[in-house]
Amino acid sequence: MTTETHVPYRLTRMGVVMTPAAGDPNEVEGVLNPGSGRGPDGELYLLPRLVADGNVSRVGLARVVVEDGVPTRVEREGVVLEPDRGWERGVGNAGVEDPRVTWIETLGLHVMTYVAYGPLGPRTAIAVSSDLREWRRLGPALFRYQDDLDMDLNLFHNKDTVFFPEPVTAPDGREALAVLHRPMWDLGETKPGQGVRVPAGVEDERQSIWISYIPLADVRDDLAALTLWEQHRFVAGPEFPFEALKIGGGPPPRRIPEGWLVLHHGVTGVLESAFAQQQKVNYAAGALILDADDPSTVVARTPEPLLAPETDDERSGIVPNVVFPTAIEEVDGRLFVFYGMADSKIGVALLERTD
């Protein structure tokens, strides 16, 4: 089936909004890949990943300063999440990384997915907040067993997870919350010698975007159900040259007339160990449109990136050549995308329709 390639959006750089604070030990290895949200005060906040020496990450809080309708800088307001649970720390590693934050109106809560860098490597976890400042951990994400996949998804590292902002209809017909995620099929990263293992029916072993669901009734009965994902489906894998190595999801999906707009990253180059800070890769931002009624179905996707590493800030840093979108927010009637720049700084770009 031929993929529709018309996605009527563009990204235009608007500048750098956050750089590491001189002398702050929590930021010595970069500020990057922020979540975002509006606080009870109506102000716009970023929740950046702050990286200390030794690649130890925390999640901070920073108010966005807007000048002439454009985000230009931030004012720091501290750290809101640290790797202080045993499962967020290993021997020689620790971190709470790459928060994606979705305001889910039906719950009245901000829902954060983040990567807990623990004893066995990166694992998705969930926390919730009503004010972006105090976060309640719900724990690691768990995948219900699905026999037709002939595989336990709990075996795999998983990153780039993000919730949809409103309920959808799950494959079983129930009202559900949906979440995008990106399983990493190389079990050799956890137990040497096991190699790459994929679920039944998966022919492409490259890392791709999947979707899972959580029945909304279960979440209303017990908020902890946000950690128990089911009805897993493949959504999209690498298809175009800028995604040749792998793809992964970005900011929370956003409703548009054509369905759901999902900004994602496509990766080319050579991938080192999952535990290494990559030096031979190139991350660029593209877009998918998912079907409004069935978000496991791709309606259209960009054959070329909307934004690729071209500026010095995007090409030089802790991990060079990285554009990594993680948040979208409306400011004065316009949409802005916040993105990681070379794993070192945070940039902002204007998201506009082209028709």
UniProtKB/TrEMBL annotation:
The keyword Glycosyltransferase applies. SUPFAM superfamilies: Arabinanase/levansucrase/invertase. Keywords: Glycosidase, Glycosyltransferase, Hydrolase, Transferase. This is Glycosidase. Belongs to the glycosyl hydrolase 130 family. Pfam families: Glyco_hydro_130. GO terms for molecular function: hydrolase activity, acting on glycosyl bonds. It comes from the Bacteria.
